[in-house]
Design a protein that fits this description.
With about 200 residues, this protein is mainly alpha-helical. The chain has one domain. It contains eight helices and no strands. Helix 5 crosses helix 8. The protein is elongated. It starts with a helix and ends with a helix. About 30% of the residues are buried.
Amino acid sequence: MSEHAAQASAATRAKPTDLREAVSTIAGYWWVGLVAGISWLVISLVILQFDSASITTVGVLVGVMFLLAAVQNIAVTTLPVEHRWVPALFSVLFLVSAVICFVDPVSTFAGLADMLGFLFLLVGVWWMTQAFLERAVNPMWWLTLISGILMTGIAFWTAGQLFATKAYTLLVFAGIWALMQGINDIVRAFRLRSLRDVV
């Protein structure tokens, strides 16, 4: 009886230590989020400064944005968190979008402009889902939720526009998307860093 109690006590003591080690390991990679956030900000700056950019360049840049989003979500699936299938599913969707952009950037630009509302809706839904998944561990989860709600509103507005307006909107809002993603990543990175200092 006392041996069973001792084993239960040892298991209880091991759980907080394992949790602390897991948090410490994850928090040690806070700089990855910072680098990703800065990369998103640079991409947004490049896109938002285009005045007569070639359609091919824009198609490739949008492909890079989708590729970065896919890589970030693949990285999340390697962490010991619940519901890892959600970022895995979105990483596949972002990866497919990136491949399409790289295969034929010119046609992709026209296609993206045509279905821009759907793509923005996809991103908005993912951000809202991500916010609720992080709610228990991230006190800044509402920032991601607000970004998702804004992106969803933009998606419905974009869907009702003419093609020429959609093409211009693709440039402007792709830059805004990268900007919002960069800000979210930087905030999340510094939140992770503060967890590292606490642990």
